[in-house]
Amino acid sequence: MANLERDCVTEQEFQTRLIALADVVRALKIPDSQLGSQKVEGSLNRLEAALKTQIKDEADRSSAIAALTKLRAVNGLRRSVAHGGFGARADRLRAGQTLAIRYYPDSSWKQLWDQVRARTVEALEVITAAVRRATLE
């Protein structure tokens, strides 16, 4: 977790921090009780099912699902640094578009990491706000 707070200056540091961030997201625990009758695997898939089941307000649900798309893009970016080849390049390009980030060499590794962290926090804030409003209904 401490890696997430640190800046980075090299590609290796960026990769290490991005993998650590993906590990945190993967560790999200969504209780079965939040999924209705669905059987869903994977933390982001479970989160999506819970959002669709638990958030009744259409606007809040839509914004939460859109934010979840950004978390999936961060995970795609992680896949792109962990694996090589054409698929990795495609993942990186899609993630860059979804997150509206500039990838190295158009920005430094520090700037790229700051952008990824900011988009992740923004996405989590949107999801958290929608869930909070849903629990108040």
Word description of this protein:
The chain is mostly helical and 137 residues long. The protein has one domain (11-136). It contains six helices and no strands. α2 (11-26) packs across α4 (58-82), α4 runs antiparallel to α5 (86-99) and α4 packs antiparallel against α6 (109-136).
Task: List key phrases describing it.
about 140 residues, mainly alpha, 6 helices, about 70% helix, about 0% strand, elongated
Task: Record the SSE blueprint.
Layout: H1 2-5, H2 11-26, H3 43-54, H4 58-82, H5 86-99, H6 109-136
Gross morphology is: elongated
Beta strands, count:
0
- Domains counted in the coordinates: how many? 1
**Percent range for helical residues?**
over 70%
Strand content bin: under 5%
Oligomeric state of the chains present here? single chain
Helical segment count: 6
Mean pLDDT value: 90
| Helix vs. strand class | mainly alpha
Give a short summary of the structure.
The chain is mainly alpha-helical and 137 residues long. It has helices spanning 2-5, 11-26, 43-54, 58-82, 86-99, 109-136. It has one domain (11-136).
